[in-house]
Amino acid sequence: MQSRFRLPIVLIALAVGPAQAQALAGTTDGADLAAACTGCHGPGGHSAGAVPDIAGMPVAEFERRMAAFRDGEGTIMNRLAPAYDAAATAALARYFADRPEPASP
Amino acid sequence: MSDGHDARRRALMRALAGTGLLAAAAPMPILGAQRGPRIVIAGGGFAGASCALALRRLAPAARVTLIDRQREFVTGPFCNTVVGGLNPAAAITQDHRGLAAAGVDVVHAEIEGVDPSARAAHLADGRRIAGDRLVVAPGIDFDYDALDGYGPEALDRVPAAWPGGAAALRRLHGQLQAMPEDGRVVLTVPDNPYRCPPGPYERASLIAHFLAEHKPRARVLLLDAKNHFSKEPLFRIGWDSRYPGRVEWRGRDDGARAMAIDVAGRRVHTVGGDEIAADVLNVIPPQRAGRLARDAGLADDAGWVPVNVHDFAAPGHEGVHVLGDAIRAEPMPKSAYSAHMQAQVCARAIAQALAGEPPGEAPLINACYSLVAPDYGISVTEVYRINGDRIAAVQQAGGTSALAAGPDTRRAESEYARSLYRNLVRDSFGSGAAPG
Ligand SMILES: Cc1cc2nc3c(=O)[nH]c(=O)nc-3n(C[C@H](O)[C@H](O)[C@H](O)COP(=O)(O)OP(=O)(O)OC[C@H]3O[C@@H](n4cnc5c(N)ncnc54)[C@H](O)[C@@H]3O)c2cc1C
């Protein structure tokens, strides 16, 4: 489990009190973050059809693509990527890079 | 836990104890596994199915039981393509076999009621299924009281088809085929909140598409209880370019809200005093949470269920969660994508609570594509964060497709809409049929 990433964040949050805790409450658990993406990209990022398959995409390429979307590229990713900061994007990149390549259809 | 299965297990234990076989057989891993936490899910649409599938992944030691009356589930998403004659109902008919393959106990039965204090579902056949957690995901019911003259007995002649099953969708399409060449299709649209905010306008679009091909002189009229609607500028651009003069919209300020329906005469009486005759009349009634949630006392006076947005728990009902169209999750719309998203958050929260792990909070997404035409897609999406006890849209993200986009983008988005359908169904039901 990746709770070793989450735990310090919770502790900091408790230490600084509820008001600031809000800003720090974001998780860097790749699976939790990815749950918002898989409705479109498919289970584990294995897509059926036109939405790109992102399972097994190398981390560097994933981060490059997300940066391009933040700069306005894409039909819909340009409206989603700006909500994800560097830490969240890195966690997502690791999560999807770790999914195995899809079996050929 | 006193459902048939456990009763049988106890009977078996008694029998074994009498023969002395119990000691010889111990330890019994299968019985042991059943002593793990049990999660009972009432309703197996997008919300309930997604939650069941996610729980199998995130809490593999838990026993997950999903109950739904329907063996076959015709989806809201893409049901307008069936109304418009682009797809057969079979292409959007899903089932629970993928869930069963993933280890979910699937029970097909009518649920008479749920008991939040016992976290139990009472089935019409007399069975009672209780768990350590109860997830209630019954979707919506129509609020017939809100529309004079319209009721369940009217559905044959004046369908709602929201989505209402394969027969209702086919009936509405059949009425379009049978209507006069220069006829008028009228849709009445309720005020917010209701299931799928852009749905009525996608439906008007795909009806117009059918008429343009088969009844070139026929038209579509929307009678809306609202002054503005989802993706309005994009729909208007699409209607102007693809169906000029064919789609007319009247809103609240035009007095267009439907007040009463004359079913026999296929007429709508509007708040503004107009009496509007239709050749095909599609009434989308006002809605509220599914009966299971309301009867159990989970809903507010307006008929929707308030929830704790961190884990979609029903406040004041320990161990009970409510998901999907039945809940108040504003500003998230009532969509299959939202239902699936909420189910992921709820399943994660349940798994973390069972494991004694601290909760982690991730952004939520909703995304809804609509087809203006088979090769013309538009979309709206939003990213949300939990802000205190509310869901809040992230300022720097979200929005609709570009108003100025060209035909290549519209075509690409129509392909993405079809792909999203397949992926969302796979991530919710574990497998499924796909529309063209
Ligand atoms: C025209 C139209 C177009 C749409 N298009 C889209 C789209 O493009 N994208 C999108 O994201 N969403 C779309 N939707 C919305 C989507 O259909 C709903 O938001 C989604 O189905 C909500 O999921 P749910 O699980 O809350 O409810 P449902 O999917 O309705 O599931 C509820 C389940 O509970 C079961 N149930 C209820 N009561 C009982 C009982 N007493 N006993 C046993 N079982 C019971 C029902 O059988 C049902 O299977 C559309 C809807 C419509 C009508």
From TrEMBL, chain A:
GO molecular function term, any single one: metal ion binding
Name listed for the protein in its UniProt record: Cytochrome c domain-containing protein
Domain (Cytochrome c) ranges: 25-100
Keywords for the protein's UniProt record, in alphabetical order: Heme, Iron, Metal-binding, Signal
Highest taxon of the lineage: Bacteria
InterPro entries: Cyt_c-like_dom, Cyt_c-like_dom_sf
Signal sequence bounds: 1-21
Residue spans crossing the bilayer: none
From TrEMBL, chain B:
Pfam families linked: FCSD-flav_bind, FCSD_central, Pyr_redox_2
TM ranges: none
Entry-linked PANTHER family: FAD-DEPENDENT PYRIDINE NUCLEOTIDE-DISULPHIDE OXIDOREDUCTASE (PTHR43755:SF1), PTHR43755
Protein name, as recorded: Cytochrome C
The FAD/NAD(P)-binding domain, residue ranges: 38-139
Sulfide dehydrogenase [flavocytochrome c] flavoprotein chain central domain segment(s): 172-285
InterPro entries: FAD/NAD-bd_sf, FAD/NAD-binding_dom, FAD/NAD-linked_Rdtase_dimer_sf, FCSD_central, FlavoCytC_S_DH_flav-bd, FlavoCytC_S_DH_flav-bd_sf, SQRD, TAT_signal
Keyword field: FAD, Flavoprotein
Domain Flavocytochrome c sulphide dehydrogenase flavin-binding: residue ranges: 363-429
Organism, scientific name: Salinisphaera orenii MK-B5
GO MF annotations, alphabetized: flavin adenine dinucleotide binding; oxidoreductase activity
